[in-house]
């Protein structure tokens, strides 16, 4: 039987589906019975999801910057 | 904005760059410039980000002739960025040179599974958030900006691993190669970094009742 601490330590591996089947089942069993760990898992998933959206707000490379880097490329290329 | 088209495989890409193909270089810039700028921001203030990234592109172009495809092209580019950023950060005295990518970077949890446990779980269970739905959370620009800021407060290696894995979708293998980490260190750093961001989100969402 996994402790809350065990589940805490395995949370990312669980989210990333990196756990072997038996461990995965043990985590799921714990989650079925422990609302604190369910909340941690839910919040960690949400954290990863939000992190994954951060770059959506990145502005594209500006045409000026692109032009400047192409100039650099022409100057430096082998 | 639509994402840029995927890059060709490394061998094709490097051959095109060596042949002086401007268009290939533009594609590389579009694919990696934002990643490099974000990594640089972890080391230096906004005023120096341009310089670090510019230095990096120069390093990439000058290194192309001798680049050997032992690791992925992007991991090589990333290593150049980190070297430049660290050098400039030390010079601009924003960072003391003791924090290191090497094994002596203690305290960030990447040393051994049980060590560096400064962010052991809080004694209490996690507090509920005012909103826990990922899609609704991610719809808030303010929250994305908060998370971006939160990342800068992570220890160096946690920040790098989380940024590359979770923001820029790098594989664990490429992250290990770029940062000289073992697979297990990489996993611990990723987990610790995510836990810290979660904890910061918890405080933020409890305090401001946002969104
Ligand atoms: Zn539990």
Topology:
The complex is a heterodimer of chains A (78) and B (211).
Chain A: H1 4-15, H2 21-33, H3 35-53, H4 63-76
Helix pairs in contact in A: 1-2, 1-3, 2-3
Chain B: H1 10-18, H2 22-41, H3 46-63, H4 73-91, H5 134-138, H6 141-152, H7 156-167, H8 172-179, H9 183-208
The complex binds zinc ion.
CATH class annotation of the largest domain in chain B: Mainly Alpha
Class computed from helices, strands and strand pairing of chain B: mainly alpha
Structural class of chain A: mainly alpha
C-alpha end-to-end distance of chain A? 61 Å
| Helix coverage percent of chain A | over 70%
Q: What is the residue-averaged pLDDT of chain B?
A: 84
Describe the structure.
The complex is a heterodimer of chains A (78) and B (211). In chain A, helix 1 packs across helix 2, helix 1 runs parallel beside helix 3 and helix 2 packs across helix 3. Helices cover 74% and strands 0% of the residues of chain A. The mean pLDDT of chain A is 93. Chain A has one domain. By secondary structure, chain A is mostly helical. Chain A contains four helices and no strands. Chain A is elongated. Chain B is mainly α and 211 residues long. Chain B folds into two domains: 82 residues, RNA polymerase sigma factor, region 2, helix turn helix motif (Rna Polymerase Sigma Factor, Chain: A); 110 residues, Orthogonal Bundle (Arc Repressor Mutant, subunit A). Chain B is 61% helix and 0% strand. Chain B is built from nine helices and no strands. In chain B, helix 6 packs across helix 9 and helix 7 packs across helix 9. Chain B starts with 9 loop residues before the first helix and ends with a helix. About 6% of the residues of chain B have low confidence. Chains A and B meet through helix 1, helix 3 and helix 4 of A and helix 2, helix 3, helix 5, helix 6 and helix 7 of B. The site of zinc ion (ZN) has 6 residues of chain A, from helix 1 and helix 3. The site of zinc ion has 6 residues of chain A, from helix 1 and helix 3.
